[in-house]
Amino acid sequence: MSTNPPIHSGADAAQIASTCAQLNITTTEFAELQRRATAAKATAYCRYSRFRVGATLLCADDAGEVVYVPGANVENASYPVGTCAERVAFGTAVTSGIRTFRAIAVATDISPPASPCGMCRQFIREFCSLQTPVIMFDKNSDYVVMTIEQLLPMSFGPEALPPPGASGY
Fold first, then answer.
1. Which Pfam family, any one, appears in the UniProt record (predicted)?
2. Are strands 100-108 and 133-137 parallel, antiparallel or unpaired?
3. How crowded is residue 152: how many other Cβ atoms within 10 Å of its Cβ?
4. Which of 8, 78, 120, 141 stands 20 to 30 A from 31 (CA)?
5. Residue 113, Cβ neighbours under 10 Å: how many?
6. Is 128 assigned a ligand-binding role in the annotation?
7. Distance between CA 165 and CA 169 in Å, rounded?
8. How confident is the prediction for the chain on average, in pLDDT?
9. Does the annotation flag 68 for ligand binding?
């Protein structure tokens, strides 16, 4: 039986500071993740479900500088063709050459916060360590934090495949 992680108050500065210390991010980075994920949500194209999702990645570029990469869900009349906010953000980052991901933020218009869907969890797993935090914000800025490993236990990742050019494959 699984238990749900605690929901933290987005108005509790001491709790946010504690969360940031645990995640090895600054309170400024945390605030920017929240602000940018919420702003990204406003750009969602969700005319069918009306369910807006925004995501922002906290990354580092080749020079080690902090980079934020946003994404929003983009739906399609052919429902399976839509793309989730998390995959939009990762696609943008990866095609821009970014490969260092420190944290992921997701924002929705519901409470409690929503987690990435299964497809997004697997997509995120391709690019992030199992300990990468996912910060999920609800409509009130309250939040839940889980790692990729918690969201996708016993995951399948790139290391499970034989290296390119391995004999017998």
1. dCMP_cyt_deam_1
2. parallel
3. 19
4. 120
5. 24
6. no
7. 8
8. 95
9. no
What are the pLDDT digits (tens) for 7-33? 999 999 999 999 999 999 999 999 999
Determine whether the annotation assigns residue 117 to a binding site: yes
CATH of 26-152, one of 3.40.710.10, 3.40.50.920, 3.40.50.720, 3.40.140.10: 3.40.140.10
Residue 105 near residue 25, CB atoms below 8 Å: no
| Catalytic residue list contains 86 | yes
pTM over 0.90: yes
Which letter does DSSP use for residue 91 in this model? H
User: Could you tell me whether strands 66-72 and 100-108 are parallel, antiparallel, or unpaired per DSSP bridges?
Assistant: unpaired
Q: At what angle do helices 118-127 and 85-95 cross, to 10 degrees?
A: 20
Residue among 86, 126, 149, 159 flagged as catalytic: 86
- Return the domain boundaries, the chain: 26-152
The per-residue pLDDT for range 153-163, each reduced to its tens digit, is 999 999 999 98
Cβ contact 72:92 at 8 Å: no
**Tokens coding 124:** 């995120």
